[in-house]
Design goal:
The chain is an alpha+beta fold. It contains 16 helices and 62 strands. One of its GO terms (cellular component) is plasma membrane. GO terms for molecular function: heme binding; peroxidase activity.
């Protein structure tokens, strides 16, 4: 069980106090819904609240508050419940009842259409409707409604029975009694539901006559986009303007809220008049409302976010003898700042539950924070996992440990069950592919050789649209027998093909299973949208080996909810060749790095320089520890090109800048920070990869064609308008939006089907509207250069650029632009060239900004060939300014901006960084075109005034150790191979203590320490100035650099 070691973890565990329980045992049936509901925005955000954030968002059209539509949908779906026959309730039957006269208006259909993006075998439409009610109330400031899961979707309509305005009080009471509510609860449900939204002329012209209200709507209280008690207090004090209480409805007996509120002489409604009472009552009755379900449905306990949760854990065979475990550990940081967490350690058990890890002495890996996300009430930190596991030892489970910077720690073992991870069958994503246009799926599985006598099958759970007015697609399942292929090491390949019909293949969930029934082993719920369009050949096979077993033990699948697997104890591995070597190192032996010819659907295109004064790849950029070629490829989904640089940077684009030049492959010699077997470029050198699909660009070698990237003149009823900028002060299209890692033009067109325009932006964002906001203007078509995240053969805009489409029945020669004042600052001079498709703005920058308080400009400085001139924290942003960088680096002596969008901090400037003419720093800041932010290999440098920063050096001695110079690494191996460690607090003293007993120690790249008794072949001495990275834990000491060791030799008495 979890072991509390410090009171500091009270915040981390506080959720248990509020829910009365610990984390579920992972994996749980509620995991998918838990992420949809709580993991909303930011890193891995599910974006479930996009249409209700802010609360007054009107995605279904002017005057229609989306949050109120979501809450109303839940009531209408529940309202057919019959407690006597145990039928109806919240079961998504409303999708079949949209035209029965009781569910008027577009809000029900548009809400269901949005929820359909999340429909899967683990997230029913009924659960999504309930989650929509929870989210709508919370987004508008209402109480937290306890949310249970486990609802099942109806296959047809229920009986009619939704209350209508003309009903009598007696009828209302009978209807609510049928649903299971008392007379008092009837009043409460109506009040709690009618604090949001209003009544519309289109549906109720007798109650809201044409020409009244705003946008054809009159609110039910004066704050129709806030969850408060005004619906009660305004009724009681006689100031209400609700059309269901006063106005034309009275004369025609349709003033339903008055009839309900007054049904007990205002006793119940009066008891709700205080804000506290209103919130408490609404929390209770709304939970009861969404918990009304048909007989036989058993709901779970209310869900709550995990304190610590494994997310997207996946095994991949990367060579015949090696598995790669990837994923993330998500830590709830609501009451425990992510900045206070030092790292997360994952420790795994081998296939038989032991501690055999091949050549490593510890089956563990350490991860630091990569990204953060948030929900309505919670925040989360994500710690990426990427670790190699010997295929012959395998994995059966793991545990987790969260370490705080204070020295406290907390261990998690999944409620005593360990976190299960089966290696019996693996969905092999690199060798699987999906053409989303046609739905053609090729799936590859790896089956452990002791399980190959079992039947192996491919499962596909997918959606198909209905050819009716029902906006909810049908959830289908297919099962296909897989064909046995070649053997590689301890695994055998299996493959199968299937064409997913319906045009929604990007939403499919893929599983591979060995065996049947309770004894089956499965790797399931893999997202189809994550597959590339090209299957990559497996290029590093090993001699086939057999695994024999003596007994069977039960285990859970890595992703299955309740499936079990046959795990084999005491395996005997036989092979025709040696597969594992051992060392005496106390850490994992350093593997030999190599160039990768293929990564996913991309081929190695060589080592290239940066451009002259610009980035060679000018699209999105990422920088983080833990960089691998695979994570960079994922970051750049939808682009033709991507490349890694400096060991930890990733860049994307569809074209390589013309000034970038090919460099010798050996120039790209820095290892990836997240995988020491891969190269990730170097200083001013990009490890470049190009798509193997046909492209429209020619900057890299000709790829193998599998499709054609081109503009689509029409998408359904929409015609291409062209490339369009965003508005001056907001979105060009403000009707509705969503974002999806599987975005296509077709999915966006479907989502926006009730609007005049749709536009796609930045590969994965979709926007709808009936007009374009002020300041949105045509841009050159070439500006929309990013391919769609879900279909690399379509264009989906770019940063601040919309690939814009308009209904073909409307004129497409010009855009309908709403009027509004210009927001161009007076100090920017603009020139416009009037053409049919372009509008350009030339920005005149002021002189170099002399201060960015409290920092003062020092000048323009060069970067270094193998490391950073400022070696502290860094980040990149498309909204970079001098002020934002200064704020980020406020704890450091220096800050500098580079390449328009990068920010670096440090307490010392590397001595080999030299000052150059200020005019060299000539790139405007990405977030402020009136400021300069360096240039290619040029730093716009600022320093705190009147402050003494430590001057780093190589001390002549560290204890009894004597400085011995700066050396390179060896050829193809480590210069010092005795043992090694790495630390975010590395100093020369720490390394010296660690290497006690050895003849030599060396520090590298600021935080790495190596020991040995001699240098390996190829390590040579270089100028001391090349060891110019300060130690992570002491800004006054040098700790080597990239491929450079600060070396000390043991002294002799």
């Amino acid at each position: 069980m979890m072991r509390l070691t410090a009171a500091a973890f009270a915040g981390l565990l506080s959720f248990a106090a509020t829910t009365g329980r610990a984390d579920p045992t992972w994996p749980a049936a509620t995991d998918e819904m838990e992420e949809i509901v709580f993991q909303l925005q930011g890193f891995k955000g599910r974006l479930f609240n996009d249409l209700i954030n802010p609360c007054n968002n009107e995605a279904a059209g002017p005057g229609r508050v989306t949050a109120s539509e979501w809450l109303r949908l839940a009531f209408h779906d529940m309202a057919t419940a019959n407690r006597f026959s145990q039928t109806g309730g919240l079961d998504a039957s409303v999708q079949f009842e949209l035209n029965n006269g009781e569910n008027t208006g577009p809000g029900h259909a548009t809400s269901l259409q949005f929820f359909a993006n999340y429909l899967s075998s683990r997230s029913s439409m009924a659960d999504l409707i309930a989650a929509g009610a929870y989210a709508s109330v919370r987004a508008c400031g209402g109480p937290i409604i306890p949310l249970r899961m486990g609802r099942r979707d109806a296959a047809s309509a229920n009986n009619v029975g939704v209350p209508q305005p003309q009903n009598s009080v007696a009828t209302f009471r009978q209807q609510f009694d049928r649903m299971g509510f008392t007379a008092a609860e009837m009043v409460q449900v109506v009040a709690c539901g009618h604090t949001l939204g209003g009544v519309h002329t289109a549906e109720f012209p007798q109650i809201v006559p044409p020409g009244t209200g705003v946008n054809g709507q009159v609110g039910l209280d004066s704050t129709s986009a806030a969850y408060d008690n005004k619906v009660v207090t305004e009724y009681l004090d006689g100031t209400t303007k609700s059309p269901l209480i006063v106005g034309p409805a009275v004369a025609i007996n349709r003033h339903s809220d008055f009839k309900v509120f007054n049904s007990d002489g205002n006793a119940t409604i009066s008891a709700m008049s205080s804000p506290e009472a209103f919130r408490a009552v609404c929390q209770r009755v709304l939970q009861k409302m969404i918990d009304v379900v048909p007989g036989g449905v058993v709901l779970t306990e209310p869900i709550a976010p995990y304190a610590v949760k494994p997310v997207d854990m996946q095994l991949t065979l990367v060579s015949g003898n090696r598995l790669l475990l990837t994923g993330n550990v998500r830590v709830r940081t609501t009451d425990l700042p992510a900045s206070s967490i030092d790292n997360v350690v994952l420790t795994w058990k081998d296939r038989i539950g032991g501690n055999s890890c091949g050549s490593a002495t510890s089956c563990s890996t350490t991860s630091t924070l990569q990204g953060v996300s948030n929900g309505f009430d919670d925040t989360f930190g994500f710690f990426p996992i990427s670790v190699y596991i010997p295929a012959y030892e395998g994995i059966s489970s793991f545990t987790l440990k969260v370490n705080l910077k204070s020295g406290d720690s907390q261990s998690y073992d999944n409620n005593g069950n360990l976190y299960p991870m089966t290696d019996g069958i693996i969905f092999q994503k690199p060798q699987s592919c999906l053409l989303q246009g046609s739905g053609a799926l090729t799936a590859t599985a790896l089956v452990r050789n002791d399980l190959t006598d079992l039947p192996i099958s491919l499962g596909a759970s997918y959606l198909t649209p209905r050819n009716t007015d029902n906006p909810v697609p049908v959830l289908n399942n297919a099962n296909i027998v897989m064909t046995k292929g070649d053997c590689s090491g301890a695994y055998t390949f299996y493959s199968a093909s299937f064409t997913i019909p319906g045009g929604l293949s990007y939403n499919a969930r893929i599983s591979v299973t060995a065996g049947e029934g309770e004894g089956a082993v499965t790797d399931d719920f893999n997202h189809g949208g994550a597959l590339g369009g090209t299957c990559v050949a497996f290029s590093d096979a090993a001699s086939c080996s057999s695994i024999t077993t003596s007994s069977a033990v039960s285990s859970l699948s890595s992703t299955a909810l309740v499936s079990s697997s046959t795990l084999l104890s005491s395996p005997t591995v036989t092979s025709s060749s040696a597969v594992v070597s051992s060392t005496t190192s106390s850490v994992t032996a350093s593997p030999t790095p190599a160039k990768k010819s293929v990564v996913g659907g991309y081929a190695f295109a060589g080592c290239w320089t940066e451009g002259t004064g610009t980035r060679a790849l000018s699209g999105p950029a990422f920088a983080y520890d833990g960089m691998t070629l695979e994570t960079c490829m994922t970051n750049c989904t939808g682009f033709d090109l991507w490349g890694t640089e400096y060991g930890r940077e990733c860049y994307c684009a569809n074209n390589l800048h013309s000034t970038s030049q090919r460099a010798p492959p050996e120039d790209c010699n820095m290892l990836c920070s997240g995988d020491p077997t891969e190269y990730c470029g170097a200083g001013n050198r990009i490890e470049l990869y190009s798509t193997t699909a046909t492209r429209s660009t020619t900057a890299t070698p000709t790829p193998t064609p599998t499709g054609t990237l081109s503009r689509k003149p029409t998408v359904g009823p929409y015609a291409l308008v062209g490339c369009q900028t965003e508005a001056t002060t907001g979105r060009a299209l403000t009707g509705a939006m969503y974002a999806d890692g599987s975005m296509t033009l077709e999915s966006c067109a479907t989502f926006c089907s009730s609007f005049t325009y749709f536009g796609v932006e930045y590969s994965r964002e979709c926007f709808c509207g009936n007009s374009l906001s002020a300041g949105s203007v045509p841009a050159p078509q070439s500006d929309c250069s990013m391919t769609c995240a879900g279909d690399r053969f379509e264009y989906c805009g770019a940063g601040n650029r919309l690939e814009l489409y308009k209904l073909a029945t409307e004129p497409t020669s010009s855009a309908a632009v709403s009027s509004g004042p210009s927001s161009i600052p007076n100090n920017i001079s603009t020139t416009t060239t009037p053409t049919t498709s372009t509008s350009t703005t030339a920005i005149t920058l002021s002189e170099t900004t002399p201060t960015a308080s409290p920092y003062t400009f020092l000048g323009c400085y060069t970067e270094l060939p193998t490391s950073r001139a400022l070696s502290g924290p860094s980040y990149a942003s498309r909204s970079m300014t001098l002020d934002s960088c200064a704020s980020f680096c406020s704890a450091f002596q220096y800050f500098a901006t580079e390449y328009a969008s990068e920010c670096y901090c440090g307490n010392s400037l590397a001595p080999s960084s030299s000052q150059v003419p200020t005019s060299d720093c000539n790139m405007p800041c990405a977030g402020n075109p009136l400021q300069y932010c360096g240039a290619g290999n040029r730093l716009q440098l600022y320093s705190l005034p009147n402050s003494e920063a430590p001057v780093p050096s190589h001390p002549a001695t560290i204890g009894s150790w004597i400085f011995s110079g700066c050396r390179t690494e060896a050829t193809g191996t480590r210069a010092l191979s005795g043992k090694a460690t790495a630390s975010s607090d590395m100093t020369l003293e720490i390394c010296a203590d660690f290497c006690e007993g050895f003849e030599l120690f060396g520090t590298e790249y600021g935080g790495e320490c190596y020991c040995g008794d001699g240098f390996a072949e190829g390590s040579v001495e270089v100028d001391e100035g090349e060891c110019n990275m300060v130690c992570n834990g002491d800004e006054g000491e040098w700790c080597g650099a990239g491929d450079r060791l600060s070396v000390y030799r043991a002294g002799r008495d």
